[in-house]
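Hey, sorry to bother you again with one of my protein questions. There's a protein on my desk that I can't quite get my head around. No rush at all, and the record is pasted right below.
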Amino acid sequence: MIGRLHGTLVGKQPPWLLLDVGGVGYELECPMSTFYELPETGRSVTLVTHYAVKEDAVALYGFHREAERGLFRTLLKVNGVGAKTALAILSGVSVEAFAALVQAGDPAALVRVPGIGKKTAERILVELRDKAADLVLGGGTRLSGAAGAVPLDPQSEAAAALQALGYKPPDALRMARQAAVEGDDAEAIIRKALKAALKA
């Protein structure tokens, strides 16, 4: 199993990035919380990873912090929560904030995350309430250290990333348009759009 990768960041187009490790290109899907911490392309980076084998596919997920990977794996154990939803949660809220939200038992805040309905939100709260305090332990250290696509303008790139996180195309376009300010890069637009969506 692949648990950690260190290499050169070749390309990044949320939610995907390409990491060159000894001449082998690894394609990873990552939450926006990890994208916010990435260096410029051409620089080295270290990520902890989660390797998933499905019936019809193999997937590799990357995270900057062990706590993020831990929450991702914990969420996958909740009935009705898949990788896409888990990544959307990590993209919209920090591990610490999610733990506080679970402890507070607020399903309304979780329902604002794409892919989570009321029943799933309630299930997450019930199944994780006793684990909330453990979510932020042992993983606070930040690790430091898609190719060939046609570049998009920041607003379009942000909208594409929001769609990949589960938002419907019209909603993603609206969110990106409302959040965008002249001079913003895609990551800044995505960050503001997700923050606004979770406060709505």
Q: What stands out?
A: The mean pLDDT is 83. Residues 4-63 form a domain with the OB fold (Dihydrolipoamide Acetyltransferase, E2P) fold (CATH 2.40.50.140).
